[in-house]
Amino acid sequence: MSDASEEEPRYYSQATAAAMDRELTEARVRIRQLETLVGILNREAEEQAERVAELREDVSRWQGRYVQARAAEIPNEK
To answer: What whole-number distance in Å separates Cα of residue 66 and Cα of residue 2?
Structure first.
């Protein structure tokens, strides 16, 4: 008796094998497309993160200027 964990080798018709090959080829193409898209999105995310950092620095500078301007005005308000 053969062990239940052993499987018989599978044989496919030529048409089935060709269809499976086409599916595999299409899947590989799609994977490459998705990898390219991921690369593009990662670059875009890095650029956006840099822009966010620049904007935060700008906001911080403007806040500092505002605080300095208000501090200069406060003694005059008394």
So the answer is: 84
Report which residue type is found at 77: E
Residue type, 5: S
**CA angle 66–67–73, rounded 5-degree value:** 90
Residue with the two structure tokens 């670059």: 43
**Six-digit token pair at 11?**
């044989």
pLDDT at 8: 77
Angle at 74 between CA 70 and CA 78, to 5 degrees: 160
Q: What is the pTM of this model?
A: 0.60
Distance, in Å, from the CA atom of 74 to the CA atom of 52, rounded to the nearest integer, reads 32
Exposure b/e, 35-51, CB count within 10 A at least 16 = b:
eeeeeeeeeeeeeeeee
Decide: 12 and 20 in contact? Cβ < 8 Å: yes
